[in-house]
Amino acid sequence: MNEGLFIKLEELIGSIYEIEKLNEQGCTSEVRRIITDHRSYLLKSAFKERYRKWLNTEAQVLKKLNTEKLISVPEYFGFILEKNSSHLIMSFEGGLTLTTALNRAPSSTERKALIKSFGEFLHQFHEKKPLEILRNSSDWLEEQLIKAQFYVENGQTEGSLKLLNHLKTNKPLSVIPTMIHGDCTTDNVFVIDGAVKLFIDVAGMTVGDPRYDESLAIREFINNPEDLAAFYDGYKRYRVTEEEFKYFDQGLYEFF
Ligand SMILES: Nc1ncnc2c1ncn2[C@@H]1O[C@H](COP(=O)(O)OP(=O)(O)OP(=O)(O)O)[C@@H](O)[C@H]1O
Ligand SMILES: [Mg+2]
């Protein structure tokens, strides 16, 4: 870490004891644990332009939610903008991603309990009255399609123009918007004491289409009826149709 960044960090959180790179790294950022006299922090750093923008958005979301304490996310401590990198400082949470927890689950009973808790956690989140501070637009899906178009035109996505045009002409009938995580895979929820209790990676958190979260949540379980049943034991709001699942998981998600 360069000295300038180190000094700025200490200004924010006090004397630093130790910095360690986490074993589990994300795809778009570098994550480190920072230990001070008082506590541990998570430093999330991004270097590519597009990922720096996402990190900035994540910082804004965490900052807004800090005052609310209504949604379970890490606590926000600061954002540092450097010439070629951006850095978000949040609370270090003692837990592990659901992906890791499932890989380590010692029995199918524990596996199902974890998946059910994910369903319950997402159910409760979608049932909450949307926070207006999280809303970006009145039409979330339209906003995503515009973003996707920009990424296609600028060669920043694996999704094709053909797929995008298909998504534009085959929009699912709209549903009542709810708060959504916006990248609700098993990688981005945290298991604490045996149950899913926290969202991480919250750049996409806003008011939007809950079927997007639901589709990404079940993508790892879709071919396993027992896993899927466990999820819907917890998530009781609505079940996406096969068509809706495909639209969101194999359609829209391709662009992000
Ligand atoms: N607040 C936190 N406390 C502890 N560990 C965390 C925290 N936030 C993230 N992590 C760890 O860092 C890893 C990467 O975090 P995150 O998902 O936010 O990064 P990312 O680069 O955006 O991921 P991707 O692009 O792959 O979705 C997580 O898998 C998790 O293990
Ligand atoms: Mg992630």
Automatic annotation (TrEMBL):
<dbReference type="InterPro" id="IPR002575">
    <property type="entry name" value="Aminoglycoside_PTrfase"/>
</dbReference>
<feature type="domain" description="Aminoglycoside phosphotransferase">
    <location>
        <begin position="24"/>
        <end position="237"/>
    </location>
</feature>
<dbReference type="InterPro" id="IPR051678">
    <property type="entry name" value="AGP_Transferase"/>
</dbReference>
<protein>
    <submittedName>
        <fullName>Aminoglycoside 3'-phosphotransferase-2</fullName>
    </submittedName>
</protein>
<dbReference type="Pfam" id="PF01636">
    <property type="entry name" value="APH"/>
</dbReference>
<dbReference type="GO" id="GO:0016740">
    <property type="term" value="F:transferase activity"/>
</dbReference>
<dbReference type="InterPro" id="IPR011009">
    <property type="entry name" value="Kinase-like_dom_sf"/>
</dbReference>
<keyword id="KW-0808">Transferase</keyword>
